[in-house]
Structure prediction request, 59 residues.
Amino acid sequence: MNDECTICRAIGWVCERHPYRPYDYEIGCACGYRAPCECNDSDPPDTSHVTVIIEETTH
Ligand SMILES: [Zn+2]
Ligand SMILES: [Zn+2]
Prediction:
């Protein structure tokens, strides 16, 4: 996480509907769901949209 992130104010979370505001009622916005900021890599990346090709290994 970037402690100097100006998007989320180092919170690590942003408003889903306003992804450039920190997820905080006072300093940002929290009208939507909580979404990870660009700097927040604590959650595993969503790879559901990635086609994973697993080649069969020879035994
Ligand atoms: Zn951030
Ligand atoms: Zn919002």
In short: The radius of gyration is 16 Å. The chain has a mean pLDDT of 85. The chain is about 0% helix and 10% strand.
